[in-house]
Specification:
The protein has 1 helix and 7 strands, in the order αβββββββ. It is of the alpha+beta class and 90 residues long. It has a single domain (2-89), classed as SH3 type barrels (Roll), CATH 2.30.30. Strand 4 and strand 5 (67-72) form a beta hairpin. The chain is globular.
Length: 90
């Protein structure tokens, strides 16, 4: 039973890492389907630092669950966390 639990944990980590690498590998743009600017937060579900208009180009530098830490390509490389599903990645 312990071996099965360990194997499941390793598999979950590999899948999570693979998904994060797929996102990190591409350039992304803000794509909030509500049409409002995409909130940028201090941490996943954290306080709002600012917002990105749809189409703003970002680079994903980390993924944690449904959240992505992004750095803007313009504007001094500002960074924060956004909801991953609201990004359109190449």
């Amino acid at each position: 039973m312990r071996l099965l639990a360990t194997a499941a944990a390793v598999l979950a980590t590999l899948i999570s890492t693979a998904n994060a690498q797929l996102v990190v590998a591409g350039n992304c743009a803000a794509a909030d389907p509500t049409g409002t600017p995409l909130n940028v937060r201090s941490a996943p579900s954290g306080s709002i630092l600012g917002a990105l208009y749809n189409g703003t180009r970002v680079t994903v530098v980390a993924v944690r669950g449904d959240w992505a830490r992004v750095v803007t390509e313009r504007g001094g490389g500002k960074s924060g966390w956004v909801y991953l599903n609201f990004l359109d990645c190449d």
